[in-house]
Specification:
single chain; alpha+beta; Heat Shock Protein 90; 2 domains
Length: 267
């Protein structure tokens, strides 16, 4: 598994008094970065609709109001100025902040897929799953398939998928990573049994607590949970896709990643 840029193995504190390696701390920070930008993107999109509607209705009201009434004209001007200020705020703060992950630079090189699965699964086992009493099992139909892509970014996406599944599972549960290939793409999925039971504060957590809480809430318009934003962005940057299935409590849930073997140029 590719190490973080520092190459250090020193421990970092994590929730519930446990410690994690610097590699895990780096992955946790990457997950939080992509989650932040994903939430900002949702906020920017969801706010622009109402702001555009307010702006349009201001023009409708203007035609209905007395043009010689200074109070009415002052009110319309105030509405328009308020909308313009909010749009500029979105552009200067929200959109500018998202630039770090919006254009994701990838380092392309061919690499074998099966070792990536084993290494990432063991990283999650040793860094979190064993401490939480969750088993991580790998079922792979891969042989010698290679993918031309960014190995480190794809490792990060797999790590997030497995870590999220481990933290969403109860003690004694099993998280399964399955992988296969077809003529054009690599498919991998993480299956786990979700539970709405309260988190045990004595167990270690790597992901942000508020993100895990949000992930349990009903999804709107098939949007993925915030914490899985890195998986979606990495898959799409490789010309593939990422899906999160809906599931009721104590029923199987699946996180699915698809990446073409010959990924397009970085974007």
């Amino acid at each position: 598994m590719t190490t973080s840029s520092t190459g250090s193995t020193s421990a970092q504190p994590v929730s519930s008094g446990f410690a994690v390696s610097e590699r895990t701390a780096h992955l946790r920070a990457e997950t939080a970065l992509f989650m932040r930008d994903y939430v900002l993107g949702l906020a920017s999109h969801d706010l622009r609709g109402p702001l555009n509607a307010i702006h349009s209705w201001a023009y409708v009201l203007e035609r209905k109001l007395d043009a010689n009434d200074p109070n009415s004209q002052r009110a319309i001007t105030g509405i328009r100025n308020g909308v313009d200020q909010q749009v500029k705020l979105l552009e200067s703060i929200v959109d500018a902040t998202r630039a770090e992950t919006r254009s994701l630079a990838l380092t392309y090189a061919p690499f074998p897929l099966h070792p990536l699965l084993d290494e990432t699964a063991e990283e999650v086992r040793s860094g979190l799953a064993r401490m939480r009493g969750v088993e991580v099992v790998v079922h792979s139909q891969l042989a010698t398939e290679q993918l031309n892509g960014d190995r480190e970014r794809l490792a990060q996406a797999l790590w997030v998928m497995l870590t999220f599944a481990v933290e969403a599972s109860l003690q004694g549960a099993t998280v399964t990573l399955t992988s296969r290939a077809d003529a054009t793409s690599w498919h991998t999925a993480v299956t786990y049994e979700t539970s709405a039971a309260p988190d045990d504060s004595t167990l270690p957590h790597v992901l942000e607590a508020f993100a895990l809480k949000q992930a349990r809430e009903p999804r709107e318009a098939n949007r993925i949970a915030w914490v899985l934003a890195l998986c979606k962005r990495v898959a799409e940057a490789h010309g593939g896709g990422f899906e999160q299935t809906d599931a009721s409590e104590n029923a199987p849930s699946t996180l699915a990643l698809r990446v073409p073997f010959s990924a397009p140029a970085a974007r």
